[in-house]
TrEMBL record:
Residues 188-241 form the Integrase zinc-binding domain. PANTHER family: GAG-LIKE PROTEIN, PHD-TYPE DOMAIN-CONTAINING PROTEIN. SUPFAM superfamilies: Ribonuclease H-like. It comes from the Eukaryota. It comes from Graphocephala atropunctata. This is Integrase zinc-binding domain-containing protein. GO terms for molecular function: nucleic acid binding.
Length: 345
């Protein structure tokens, strides 16, 4: 039942009232004046409901609604998992359409020209689905999007979007001079990459990219090719894995405690070009470093050597022994200077 604001005691609490007025407020303590009267003497509600009972019967009326959607791309592009099969089926469909228009029927195996026309038809459908706005801008002689401006794209006689450049006077084939431009995320692009990868004996990413660049230009080709090769099951199964060889036990000189350089390994590194300064001139000469490594503590001693002769090594060894003491064992890679020094001892 609807209660007017003047007869509703809840308004005293919701709207607020001073405590001095609330003490002697009759509406808050006793309610409205008609509240203690019989029910039939209560005022009638002013809220009028809609007379739904007297309304007409609701009936369900069937309606036919027609919606229009843009035609989807040729679903043949996503039906097949082989680039050769997709080209062959497309060529057969185009032959059927051509036979329906003329009385001269084409029969027999597919010709190279039919396969080439089917290839251009497929690539054109891919371009219209990925570069529709860019193709429209180029036809209106307006600048294309930023992602394609550096490629200088243009439309050829067949309406195919190709990459520009400065190779039009070269002896390369037309497809290599101006490759067909393709997007990076499309099922047909994946088929083309897989076909090139498999027909060239599962070529690596760099070789596959170089082979594809002879006919098509794929945006972000490096990442697309690496992704497709990573998903190749054959390459994954035959990927060589290097096995770490089993290492032998360490020699006693590596595990026996001793003073530094008692057991030493030696070798050369270089050459390095250094300046030899005189009073009147500056010369650039080659120098080598003779490295002495302690087999126990891994301490390093470096001597500068002018050449790789035996005398040069003996001079470096003499300086090393003067600083570090005699060695009980001296290990090398048996170079000619080391062997010559061993014979002179």
């Amino acid at each position: 039942r609807h209660i007017a604001s003047g007869d509703n005691p809840a308004d005293c609490a919701s709207r607020g009232i001073p405590a001095s007025q609330l003490v002697n407020h009759p509406l808050w303590w006793t309610g409205p004046s008609w509240f203690h009267l019989p029910h039939h003497n209560w005022p009638a509600s002013q809220f009028v409901l809609a007379e739904l009972l007297s309304s007409e019967e609701f009936k369900k009326i069937p309606l036919v609604v027609l919606t229009t959607t843009p035609p989807p791309d040729w679903d043949l592009l996503s039906r097949y998992s082989s680039w050769d099969k997709l080209q062959r089926i497309t060529a057969l469909v185009l032959r059927f359409i051509s036979n329906c228009k003329t009385t001269k029927r084409i029969k027999g195996p597919l010709s190279p020209s039919e396969t080439s026309s089917a290839r251009l038809k497929i690539l054109g459908l891919v371009q219209r689905s990925a570069f529709a706005e860019d193709i429209s801008s180029i036809r209106k002689q307006h600048p294309c999007s930023t992602r394609l401006q550096r490629l200088k794209p243009f439309l050829d006689a067949d309406g195919c979007l190709r990459v520009g450049g400065r190779l039009s006077r070269s002896s390369l084939p037309p497809d290599s001079q101006h490759p067909v431009l393709l997007p990076k995320n499309h099922p047909v692009v994946d088929l083309i990459v897989d076909h090139c990868h498999k027909t060239h004996l599962h070529a690596g990413p760099q070789l596959t990219q170089a082979l594809l660049a002879q006919s098509v230009w794929i945006l972000c080709a490096r990442s697309v090719i690496r992704t497709r090769i990573f998903k190749c099951v054959t390459c994954f199964r035959n990927k060589p894995r290097n096995r770490a060889p089993l290492m032998g036990d360490l020699p006693p000189s590596r595990v026996t405690p001793a003073r530094p350089f008692l057991a030493t390994g030696t070798d050369y590194c270089g050459p390095f070009t250094v300046k030899s300064v005189n009073l009147r001139s500056v010369k650039h000469v080659k120098m080598y470093l003779c490295i002495f490594v302690c087999m126990v503590t891994k301490a390093v001693h470096i001597e500068v050597v002018t050449d790789l002769t035996t005398d040069g090594f003996l001079a470096a060894l003499t300086r090393f022994v003067s600083r570090r003491g005699l060695c009980a064992d001296l290990y090398s890679d048996c170079g000619t200077n080391f062997v010559g020094a061993a014979e002179r001892r």
